Amino acid sequence: MRKGQNLNHPAKGSTTKVQPIRQPKDIKAIGTILRDHPRNLALFTLGIHTILRPAELLGIRVDQVQNTRPGEEIEVRETRTNRMRRFSLNRACVASVRALLEYREKEEGGAPDPADRLFAGLRGPLSVQALHRLVKGWCAAQGLQGNFGSHTLRKTFGYHQLLGRRASLHDLMTDLGHSTPHQTLEYLCVPPKEAVRCLAKGPSKQGKPSYEALEREVLALRNRIGKTLPAKPGMLESEEKYRVIFENANDLIVYTDLEGRFLELNDKLEEIFGYKREDFIGKRFSEVDVLGPRDLKKARKDLRNTIAGNPPQVSEFEVFRKDGRKAFVEVNSRLIKIDGRTRASILIIRDITQRKKAEEALRKVHEELERKVRERTLNLEDANTALRVLLKKRDEDRMELQERMLMNLKELIIPYLEKMKKSLLDERQRTLLEIIESNLRDILSPLARQISASYLNFTPTEIQVANLVRSGKTTKEIAELLVLSTKTIEFHRENIRSKIGIKNKKVNLRTHLLSFPDSEYLPGNTPVII
Prior knowledge:
Layout: H1 24-33, H2 38-49, H3 54-58, H4 62-65, E1 73-77, E2 84-88, H5 91-108, E3 120-121, E4 124-125, H6 128-141, H7 151-163, H8 169-176, H9 181-187, H10 192-200, H11 211-227, H12 235-247, E5 252-256, E6 262-265, H13 268-273, H14 293-307, E7 315-320, E8 326-338, E9 341-351, H15 353-412, H16 414-422, H17 427-452, H18 460-470, H19 475-482, H20 486-499, H21 509-514
Antiparallel strand pairs: 1-2, 3-4, 5-6, 5-9, 7-8, 8-9
């Protein structure tokens, strides 16, 4: 193939990611293309049926898969963590590996060395770069548009597990060694619409079996195995299927007798608690140091209820790992009956530590928000209180100033104006005096209206009389100023005393009027004679 002919080769400077093979028909078509090439077919088949990285896939030795049967596990060392990882091979993988080994034996004139790499070329073991070129060639031969390479095989497995088999996004994230679901979705090139659907589903619905479904499957197989005679055909296959489910479950599965003694556990024990199986087998749960006193008492009560036929739906426990760290688990228990008799109990234990941490973090954030809201509310209340005090003080000072101004004018200026009016003045002087009096009224009328309004439901004449009484005028002086008789003024004074509630009481009217607080002032527009 000459340069420029590869349809899936990215353009220069492109940041296109290596893509999975999305369509099952394309996968099948590539398998057909490779059917006459045993090595490439086995390489392609194992790549799209396992989650192995390219280097891990190419590192498989002959002895690891030489006598493998469908469903059996092999161990492969992870390139990133250097830990051994177990995974099983399905029928298609086993068939392609057998075909490859038979081909090599025929070509090499004898069985290949068990220590040899399974996938080899003319110059020795295949490299990742060689695998990269092979995958691009396979996809180009099928006419696929896009960018493909060595990681296409691994991505194809993850893509179809997530969208085709509805596997758990969180489990797939863990298997791929990613830190977030978004990283996994981006790595697998999942379309946005499907990504939203995957993220919207809770962890318990993303392919992880429910307690009831897992329990039904395990118990059904357990009963079949328990009732099968050793010589009966199919027993090994049934037991193998049960073992695969038991060992590869996403949760810790525990069998106990009716006394709480551990009979069997799967490998999740080490992941959750940090212990080996032999640390638990044959011991009661009270003999292993994983529960505190309170939770141990609760576990004993749950065991009694389970044996009595009333198992709790789901119980939560705080447990202690072998290294002393705390963890949280969710336990669902059921009885196992064989031939109508209760034989043992099954516990399905799920690690909920991360969920508990998230709930605790959410609780702390909620409490912190509540605290800040309370503090802010108190600060606002204090600020409002201070503002109200300042506003009240300002109003009081303003009214006091207005009152002082009016009283000073009435006591220091008005009396002299009245004396001047009674003196011998010519026409020009009297006119000037009237102008001065009129201007003073214009200046002081807003203040005078506020003070006069403190008398509420007084008539206009009563307001005038009250203002004059407040300023210290006698009945005779008021009568002269208002051009009324003294009896009329006395009549108004009695009405005023009645309206302010001091009639027939030995209370001085002027003193009482002067005691009215400024806060009782209301808007008024009745003119007051100054």
